Amino acid sequence: MKYYLIVFIFQVLFNIFKVLEIKYTFEDRLLPLMTNSIWINLVSLASVYYSLDRLFEGDFWVIPFYIGGSIVGKWIALRKMENIRSKIFKFIFRE
Length: 95
Hints:
By secondary structure, the chain is an all-alpha fold. Helix content is 86%, strand content 0%. It has 4 helices and no strands. It is elongated and about 55 Å long. The termini are far apart. The model has no long low-confidence stretch (mean pLDDT 89).
């Protein structure tokens, strides 16, 4: 169960960092983008290592946790984090 939780958390973090990478690129913020890239690589390496380790041992239950972490991470990044672009459009078009 420990490995499932680790893979799930790493996938959540990876997807949050990936969305932040797109945001920082759009906003042209170089230092946060470079720092974020380091975290993306570390988290993805750990996630792939632990998930493949379990798969090579024949434990296919790690797959739902890998995919579930990915979905939850995207949802958190898109719905629960500040979206400046959306606020600008709402302000301009007074929605």
